């Protein structure tokens, strides 16, 4: 009998991997903040015993309530008893309507209409199409590019990929395929003092950045539909934290040149940075907002695009060769199971016994405390924390397999990338579980990189 990991290697393709890449662990269970992993083989070639590790990644930032949560499971089961899925063309259902009510109630001001998509990348595609349709409907059909930030990440589909960082993203590999957008520098790094709550950044660099964004918008004013950015925290492009005032600059520039402002809150939404949506750090409302990842509490794939009345009504008005309809409609959009479990997740986030701000501020404190010893390591260039995000950045690229294994040996599952070993723990982690994560990160980095 070939074992699971060999069969995986023979048959499956893993993210950003060659066919046949070796995986080292399989998951046989998950509960609370823990994954139960089975390692490949022990040193005698025997299957090793399962190990229970704290998931420092929340399964790519989604499983904010941890695993096998009884209320999420029961929401899924209750909806599955009624109907698991129906098409959304010509039909509607209460989980979708209720979810739209709740999302528009908690979203930044003005976002009043919801398109339910089926993954983060798809929601970004929809946002880009909405921006194009918006400008075209207003007669500006020559506008077909966006401003994106260097260091950004917005997904892997072709449209979304074209807005990712042009150097570290996949532009080099897909140069002939991706539309060419306008790239602004990313705003300079900032940090928020955990004691005073004040944000600090280099004000000269910030002024240079703001002037450059304004210049690019002005130079390309007749070509641009929108500006797209991950507010305050650029995630998969490098875990870069920047000053919320940058969002105000983006808002002004968009107003000045008639661009839509698209915030990609797929990573930052649902409390992760310490505000429910990261846009709230600056009190700025975008015209279009993408959400995903933690929307369903990490149980299913789902995403959404929220827009203002102005955007919805302009796109819905026929004219200038545009049909007056949003031209998108995934088969599994508004999946009832996903909507029902999203509602249950929102309810848990606002549970008065354990409201999300309390969980995230406890996480923030524990991450500050637990990761700061890493500052003393030779290999470490920077340690930064914002809300439920903790990052240890090295001087050199992380030895990913070695650090992953060393962290598992210390009881935590991490998935570093490039120069960053980072964590976004489930909000349900207690202090001991966060301490396990931070000790595993510091210990693994020291063991592997010194
Ligand atoms: C993960 C992510 C996406 C892509 O979402 P998928 O569900 O993986 O398609 C887009 N934008 C940001 C900011 C993300 O973190």
UniProtKB/TrEMBL annotation:
Its EC number is 2.6.1.62. The keyword Ion transport does not apply. Substrate binds at residues 60, 153, 293, 329, 415. Gene3D superfamilies: Aspartate Aminotransferase, domain 1, Type I PLP-dependent aspartate aminotransferase-like (Major domain). Its cofactor is pyridoxal 5'-phosphate. The record marks 16 as: Participates in the substrate recognition with KAPA and in a stacking interaction with the adenine ring of SAM. It comes from the Bacteria. Keywords: Aminotransferase, Biotin biosynthesis, Cytoplasm, Pyridoxal phosphate, S-adenosyl-L-methionine, Transferase. Catalyzes the transfer of the alpha-amino group from S-adenosyl-L-methionine (SAM) to 7-keto-8-aminopelargonic acid (KAPA) to form 7,8-diaminopelargonic acid (DAPA). It is the only aminotransferase known to utilize SAM as an amino donor. Homodimer. PANTHER family: ADENOSYLMETHIONINE-8-AMINO-7-OXONONANOATE AMINOTRANSFERASE. This is Adenosylmethionine-8-amino-7-oxononanoate aminotransferase.
